[in-house]
Amino acid sequence: PRFPAASTTWHSNDDDVYRAPPIDRSILPTAPRAAREPNIDRSRLPKSPPYTAFLGNLPYDVTEESIKDFFRGLNISAVRLPREPTNPERLKGFGYAEFEDIDSLFQALSLNEESLGNRRIRVDVADQAQDK
User: Fold this and answer.
1) Domains of the chain by residue range
2) For the segment 42-69, what is each residue's pLDDT rounded down to a tens digit?
3) Strand partners, 76
4) Interacting residues of 17 by C-beta distance below 8 A, sequence separation 6+
5) β-pairing, 76-80 with 95-99?
6) Number of neighbouring beta carbons within 10 Å of residue 46
7) Fold of 54-121
């Protein structure tokens, strides 16, 4: 039996309206790079040693060992944890980590906001002027 021609038009062209626009892939970040590279302007990094990171919001019971452990795998050369002059037992809640090379410093900065103890610590480029 032949079907009337009209029955083939039950799906009209209106369904084009419901199609989502294609995704513009050029605006999506490429995941591997975004995951690997911290969002840091390399021009802020020191051009020569010392490659020092400022560590903020440290737990008060932090030790040099725990800092070294936090940055394990990086070439860390020194950790400085200033203490309260009036109470040498008590840390000021910030410190500095010095790295042997610029890449270690760069990698360390990618740990910004990671947890050490029970706090999310700040890792930033230390201000070069303070060591002068």
Assistant:
1) 54-121
2) 888 999 999 999 999 999 889 999 999 9
3) 99
4) none
5) antiparallel
6) 13
7) Alpha-Beta Plaits (3.30.70)
